[in-house]
Amino acid sequence: MNFELDEIVIEERCRQSALAARVISRAPAAVPVNFIADARDAIRRTASAADPFGAGKRRMAVMHRRAPFLMACPAGSSEFACCGYLVLVLASNCPMDCSYCFLQEYLADNPGVQVYANYADAFDELERARRRTPGRALRVGTGELADSLAFDRMTGISRDLVEFCAPRDRLLLELKTKTDEIDDLLTVDSRGRTLVSWTLSPPHVFLSSEKGTASPAARLAAASRVLEAGYKVGFHLDPVIAYPGAERDYLALLDDLFDTISPARIAFISLGGLRMTPALRSAARRRHPHDPLLCGEEVLAPDGRYRTFTPLRAALLRSLERRIAAASPAVMRYLCMEPPSIHRRVLGQTPPPAAALGRALAER
Amino acid sequence: MSDEHIAKSVRAWAEPRHLDRAHLERWLALDAYSAAAILDAAARLRLRVGQLQGALEMLEEIALVDKTQVSAVLARAPLKRILEGIGPAPARARAFVDELRAMRFPRLGRVLEQMKAEVAALKLPRTVAVALPKDLGSDELRIEIRVRSSTDFRDSLRALEEKADAVERILDLLGGGN
Question: Chain A contacts of B57, Cβ < 8 Å?
């Protein structure tokens, strides 16, 4: 994918790293590369910029990660029916600019793109996590604070990660993306231990709210290719945005999906309604003032987030769930960041404990 | 009226009322017709600052979704009727904000009206109150029984039991059932 950078900064201690060498060799010639003692200053928001978050996306820092790489999903909460997802933070922020993206709030203070030269330390953490949980399958993803594949053409990290996970049982790596940057993956044998997942939205949402991403058709085509190369695939219909005509469009999207990929070959599909904290909503509206999809019939829900009012949201999610179930009851469906009562209304059952759901997803 | 005159008039309205800078800037960023139309509405209805803030936000959002200008939204019949109507300004101001809300949340408005009608149709005794979640933001129905005697208590339970099917229907509607 093409994205524009104003500058690449490399932390001095990472100057000799393999990642720095890769990034420098693959960066466009016009992008200045500077070396800096501590890149944490470079990733902070530039208060004087008209759009500090947007400016941050155009500045990449190759740096040493000082915190653990492996963490629980930041969306996890006892309020919701959770899937037990573990997050591997190999990068932070994203060159694409979806108007509803939670990173606009989560990374508001440190919006500079971060890629970590010491990412091999993440593999040690993963190995320790595996040894601490004998007999338990783990599902770990790199697509929570960044798009898993958006920077891959420059960093090549995903290839290393797939190769690390390939011989290790009880470990499912999930690469979540809105791109079609899969070429590197096609040259690696994942041995079925990597799943590539795509967020899917109807064309109306893609055009209005998903700037810089691959089109829905391109995402499906990429999914088809990785499937043939031995990877597993999954899909996230998240956020589901309840604009007038949404049900028709999302059902058509599912039809396109099942026409492209046999439901029997899909590991899981997750569903989640649009949800935004007041701060995120404010930031999103300020940065994307012309996106009408940010002005839907969202109201303040008990969890303090703006969500589509409940009857409309539940009806829409249920309609999508029924279409998926009709295509193949074997496709695993789950909800993201929805309360247990919505889980019961949409999926017709009490949500399982996060550990159980996490295990089931990891074993797909 | 020139753009400069309109801006001056907007500031003249905003400053003594301590309208916050963010809303003032949004108002001034509108096209001149729209800024003037809001000023006119504020004057006719004697809008309070809070009402103007809410109205401005809703007007902008309605205009964005409907791909039109704020001035065109304000020219719509239901709002025009209120603006040009007679009667105490505070009541008209409330009606104005309510109408804007109905335009901003059309589907929510329809579903809420339907559900309120279903609750009213329960005709439960005064000892039993049924409350829908605010703005249908959750699927929780709150049922409150207030009694001071065992007779009232048993009567309340009996009334609820008789209406159990209807209450279940409301619960179903809350969850998006038809």
Answer: none
Q: Cβ–Cβ of A292/B67 closer than 8 Å? A: yes
Shortest distance, CA A285 to any CA of chain B (angstroms): 10
What interhelical angle do B32-45 and B49-65 show, nearest 10? 140
According to DSSP, the residues that pair with A138 across neighbouring strands are A171
Q: Measured between beta carbons, which residues in chain B are less than 8 angstroms from residue A99?
A: none
Of A273, A261, A363, A252, the C-alpha closest to A317 is A273
Place of tokens 């990374």: A107
- Using the beta-carbon criterion (under 8 Å), do B137 and A318 form an inter-chain contact? no
Nearest chain A Cα distance for residue B136, angstroms: 5
ipTM of the complex: 0.93
For chain A, where are the alpha helices, taking DSSP H only? 18-26, 52-56, 103-106, 120-132, 152-155, 157-165, 203-209, 216-228, 246-260, 278-287, 310-327, 340-347, 354-362
Residues forming a β-bridge with A116? A63
Among the partner-chain residues B61, B105, B139, the one whose CB lies closest to the CB of A310 is B139
Q: For B14-31, what is each residue's pLDDT tens digit?
A: 999 999 999 999 999 999
Taking residues A276-297, report their average pLDDT.
97
Has residue A81 got a pLDDT over 60? no
Say how many CB pairs under 8 Å bridge A and B: 73
Every domain of chain B and the residues it spans: 3-104, 108-174
Mutation for A interface: B135, B140, B141, most A CBs within 10 A: B135
Considering only the beta carbons, identify the residue of A297, A302, A310 that sits closest to B105.
Answer: A297
The reported pLDDT for the residue numbered A360 is: 75
Residue B9 φ then ψ, to 5°: -65, -40
Tokens describing residue B49: 């600052």
What mean pLDDT value characterizes chain B?
Answer: 96
Identify the band that residue A138 occupies on the pLDDT scale cut at 50, 70 and 90.
Answer: confident
* CA nearest to B138 within chain A: A310
Residues of chain B where predicted confidence (pLDDT) is lower than 70: 1
Contact state of B108 with A312 under an 8 Å Cβ cutoff: yes
Record the pTM.
Answer: 0.94
Q: Which pLDDT does position A77 carry in this prediction?
A: 63
Q: Where are the domains of chain A?
A: 64-362
CATH for A64-362 is 3.80.30.30
How would residue A133 be classed by pLDDT, with cut points 50, 70 and 90? Answer: confident
